[in-house]
C-alpha cells in the first residue's frame, strides 16, 4: 500500500503516473495471489482437506501456522488452496459474461428492430433486481457446484455488458468508416467482427477487472449462505461461514484469515480497474 | 401536470417488466429441480400422502390453471399460502418487511449523509493527501466482504470489548416490547418503552455499521466525481473569479449542484443495500425479509419465492422511478 500513499508526491493525474501505480500494485497483488494458488502444495505440509487427528480448533503457531478449524483442518493450507477455486470461478464467470454479453449487445445494437426489442426487454427483466439478489435466487434454484456457479455469476453479469456494448455500437454504426465498409461491399458479419467488435470493447476492458472483484465477493457470499461451494472443499466464503460460531466465542483464526485473503484479492482487482479507468479518463481529456 | 404524465408513462412501462418477472419466476421455480412437498412430509410418508399434500396446495392442477389462480390472487393482494408454514404469505411478509426496512433505511440515510460530506471534502482537496486517503478508504470499502466485516465487528464489539449485545436477535426479550410495525426501534419509540428503546438501538449498531461501510464506498466515489465536475466547470470558475465568499461558493454553488445526482445514487445504493442485508441478516440472526426469502428459496416454497422475488423487483424499480421524479423536480434542466 505504501506505493499509493506516495503517489500524490510524485504525480498528478494528468501525466497518468498515478494510474500506472494503481495498475502495477493491483496486478502485483493478483500475480502473487495466482502464484500462491498454484504453488499451494509447496507452501504447506498439510492437505486442504486433511484432518489432524491430534486436535480441532488448535490456536495458531506450532504445527499449524494459522491453527486448525472445527474439523481439525489446517487453516493456512485451506486459505491457500481456496484461492484456486475463488479466482478460477470469478475469472471464468466474468469471461463468459463478457463473451455472451458482447455478442448479444453487438446483435441488438447493429441489427436493431425486433432483435433489439426482444433482447433489451429480457435485459430489462434481469436489471429489475439488485445483482446479488438475482445471483442468490438463480443459484438457489440451479444448485451449487463449480459449473453452476460459473453459469449463475455469468448470467447475472451478462446483461450489463450487453447494454454497454449495445450503446457503444449504436454510436459507432453511424460513423463514416462503417458506411465506407458497407459501400466497399463488406458483409454484415464482417462489419460486426472486424470494425464494431474491437472498437466497442474499450469500456468493457475497464469494467471487466472491477467485475472480477465483484464476482469473487458474490461467490464467497453465496458460499457463506450455504448456496455455493460447501465444506469440506476449500473456499473462502464457506470457511468464513464455518467460523461464524467460533467468532462469538472469540476465536478469530478460523474466519479472519480467509476473509483477509478475499479482501486482498478483490482489492487487487479494484486497484487494477481504478487504474484502467483513470487512464481511460486521462486519454479522453 | 407534466410530472404526472411522466409518472403515468413510466408506470405503464413497468407493467411488461413486472409481468415478465411474474411469469419467469413462476416457471423457473417449477421447472428447475426441487420439490416443495417432500420437505414438509416426514421420512415415512407414502406416495399417497404426497399426492394429498399436493392437492391441498393446488399443485395437482395443470400449470396454466395454477398460473391463473396466482395471477388472480395478485390483484387482490393475495400471494397464496406458504407450503412450509401453512400461513398466508401476505401476512408473513408484512411481519418480515419492518425489521429489514429498519436496517436498510437507517443505513442508507447515514451512508448518504456521510458520502455527501466526505465526497465534497475530498473533491476540494483533489490529488492531495486527504483526498487520496478518502479514495483508498473507498477502494477498501468496495473490496470488503460485508458478511466478513460483520463477523469482525462481532469479534471486536461483542467478544473482545463486550460493548454490544450478542448477535442473536433484534431486541432483549425481557424488554417486553409490543410489536406494531415490526421495526423494533420504531415500535419502542411509539409505545414509549424505555428499556426496549435502548436495547433495540444497541442491537442495531453493529448491523447498521456493517451495511454503512458496505454501501458508503460507491456513493463516496460518485459524489466526489460529480463534485469534481462542478469544481472544474466554467460556471464555478466564473463564480469564484467574482470573488464570492467561500461559504456562498460551497453552499450555493458546489453543494447544490452536486446534490442533483443524489436521488439516482440513493436508488442505486438502496438496491445494493437490499442485497447486502440478506448477508447481514444472516450474520446477526436478524429475522427479516432476507432470511425469510432465503428459506423460501432453499425449500422451494413456491408462493414465498414468487412473492419475495416480485416484491424486491417492484421495490427496486419503484425506487428508481421515485428517484427520476425527484431528480426532474429538482433539476430544471431535465426534460420530461
TrEMBL record, chain A:
InterPro entries: BP-dependent_transpt_permease, MetI-like, MetI-like_sf
PROSITE patterns, sorted: ABC_TM1
Subcellular location: Cell membrane
Signal peptide range: none
Pfam families for the chain: BPD_transp_1
Predominant location: membrane
Residue spans crossing the bilayer: 21-43, 87-111, 118-140, 146-165, 214-232, 252-276
UniProt keyword list: Cell membrane, Membrane, Transmembrane, Transmembrane helix, Transport
CDD domains referenced in this protein's UniProt entry, alphabetically: TM_PBP2 (cd06261)
Superkingdom of origin organism: Bacteria
Keyword Cell membrane belongs to the record: yes
Domain ABC transmembrane type-1, chain residue ranges per copy: 83-273
Family indicated by similarity: Belongs to the binding-protein-dependent transport system permease family.
Protein name according to UniProt: ABC transporter permease
Organism of origin: Paractinoplanes ovalisporus
Classification of source organism: Bacteria, Bacillati, Actinomycetota, Actinomycetes, Micromonosporales
UniProtKB/TrEMBL annotation, chain B:
Keyword Transport appears in the UniProt entry: yes
Superkingdom per UniProt: Bacteria
Principal localisation: membrane
Key words of the record: Cell membrane, Membrane, Transmembrane, Transmembrane helix, Transport
Membrane-spanning residues: 12-32, 103-123, 144-164, 200-220, 265-284, 304-330
Subcellular location: Cell membrane
Cell membrane listed as a keyword: yes
Domain ABC transmembrane type-1: 97-323
One Pfam family, short name: BPD_transp_1
UniProt similarity note: Belongs to the binding-protein-dependent transport system permease family.
Protein name from the UniProt record: ABC transporter permease
Source species: Paractinoplanes ovalisporus
Lineage per the UniProt record: Bacteria, Bacillati, Actinomycetota, Actinomycetes, Micromonosporales
Amino acid at each position: 500500500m505504501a506505493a499509493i500513499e506516495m503517489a500524490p508526491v510524485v504525480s498528478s493525474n494528468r501525466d497518468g503516473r498515478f494510474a500506472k501505480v494503481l495498475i502495477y500494485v493491483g496486478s502485483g497483488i493478483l500475480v502473487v495471489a495466482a502464484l500462491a494458488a498454484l504453488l499451494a502444495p509447496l507452501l504447506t505440509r498439510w492437505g486442504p482437506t486433511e484432518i489432524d487427528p491430534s486436535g480441532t480448533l488448535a490456536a495458531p503457531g506450532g504445527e499449524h501456522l494459522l491453527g486448525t478449524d472445527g474439523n481439525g483442518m489446517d487453516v493456512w493450507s485451506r486459505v491457500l488452496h481456496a484461492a484456486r477455486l475463488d479466482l478460477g470461478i470469478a475469472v471464468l464467470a466474468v469471461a463468459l459474461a463478457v463473451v455472451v454479453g458482447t455478442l448479444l449487445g453487438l446483435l441488438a445494437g447493429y441489427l436493431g428492430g425486433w432483435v433489439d426489442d426482444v433482447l433489451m426487454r429480457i435485459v430489462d427483466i434481469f436489471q429489475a433486481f439488485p445483482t446479488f439478489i438475482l445471483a442468490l435466487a438463480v443459484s438457489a434454484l440451479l444448485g451449487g457446484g463449480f459449473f453452476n456457479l460459473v453459469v449463475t455469476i455469468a448470467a447475472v453479469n451478462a446483461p450489463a455488458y450487453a447494454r454497454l456494448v449495445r450503446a457503444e455500437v449504436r454510436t459507432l454504426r453511424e460513423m463514416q468508416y462503417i458506411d465506407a465498409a458497407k459501400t466497399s461491399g463488406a458483409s454484415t458479419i464482417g462489419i460486426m467482427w472486424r470494425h464494431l467488435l474491437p472498437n466497442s470493447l474499450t469500456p468493457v476492458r475497464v469494467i471487466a477487472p472491477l467485475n472480477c472483484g465483484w464476482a469473487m465477493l458474490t461467490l464467497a457470499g453465496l458460499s457463506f449462505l450455504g448456496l455455493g461451494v460447501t465444506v469440506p472443499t476449500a473456499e473462502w466464503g464457506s470457511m468464513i461461514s464455518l467460523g461464524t460460531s467460533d467468532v462469538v466465542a472469540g476465536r478469530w483464526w478460523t474466519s479472519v484469515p480467509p476473509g483477509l485473503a478475499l479482501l486482498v484479492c478483490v482489492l487487487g482487482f479494484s486497484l487494477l480497474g481504478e487504474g484502467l479507468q483513470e487512464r481511460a479518463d486521462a486519454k479522453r481529456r | 401536470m407534466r410530472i404526472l404524465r411522466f409518472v403515468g408513462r413510466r408506470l405503464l412501462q413497468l407493467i411488461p417488466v413486472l409481468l415478465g418477472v411474474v411469469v419467469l419466476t413462476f416457471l423457473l421455480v417449477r421447472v428447475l429441480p426441487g420439490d416443495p412437498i417432500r420437505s414438509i412430509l416426514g421420512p415415512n410418508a407414502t406416495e399417497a400422502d404426497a399426492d394429498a399434500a399436493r392437492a391441498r396446495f393446488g399443485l395437482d392442477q395443470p400449470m396454466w390453471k395454477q398460473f391463473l389462480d396466482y395471477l388472480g390472487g395478485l390483484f387482490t393482494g393475495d400471494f397464496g399460502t406458504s407450503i412450509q408454514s401453512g400461513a398466508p404469505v401476505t401476512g408473513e411478509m408484512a411481519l418480515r418487511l419492518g425489521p429489514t426496512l429498519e436496517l436498510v433505511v437507517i443505513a442508507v440515510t447515514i451512508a448518504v449523509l456521510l458520502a455527501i460530506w466526505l465526497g465534497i471534502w475530498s473533491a476540494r482537496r483533489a490529488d492531495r493527501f486527504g483526498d487520496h486517503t478518502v479514495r483508498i478508504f473507498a477502494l477498501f470499502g468496495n473490496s470488503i466482504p460485508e458478511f466478513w466485516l460483520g463477523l469482525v465487528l462481532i469479534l471486536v464489539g461483542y467478544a473482545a470489548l463486550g460493548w454490544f449485545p450478542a448477535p442473536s436477535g433484534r431486541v432483549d426479550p425481557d424488554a417486553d416490547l409490543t410489536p406494531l410495525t415490526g421495526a423494533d426501534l420504531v415500535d419502542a419509540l411509539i409505545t414509549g418503552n424505555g428499556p426496549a428503546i435502548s436495547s433495540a438501538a444497541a442491537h442495531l449498531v453493529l448491523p447498521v455499521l456493517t451495511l454503512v461501510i458496505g454501501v458508503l464506498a460507491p456513493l463516496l466515489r460518485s459524489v466526489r466525481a460529480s463534485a469534481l465536475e462542478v469544481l472544474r466547470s466554467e460556471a464555478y470558475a466564473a463564480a469564484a473569479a467574482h470573488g464570492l465568499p467561500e461559504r456562498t461558493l460551497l453552499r450555493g454553488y458546489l453543494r447544490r449542484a452536486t446534490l442533483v445526482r443524489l436521488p439516482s445514487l440513493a436508488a442505486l445504493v438502496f438496491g445494493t443495500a437490499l442485497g447486502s442485508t440478506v448477508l447481514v441478516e444472516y450474520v446477526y440472526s436478524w429475522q427479516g425479509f432476507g432470511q425469510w426469502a432465503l428459506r423460501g428459496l432453499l425449500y422451494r416454497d413456491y408462493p414465498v419465492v414468487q412473492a419475495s422475488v416480485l416484491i424486491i423487483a417492484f421495490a427496486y424499480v419503484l425506487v428508481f422511478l421515485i428517484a427520476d421524479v425527484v431528480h426532474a423536480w429538482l433539476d430544471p434542466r431535465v426534460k420530461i
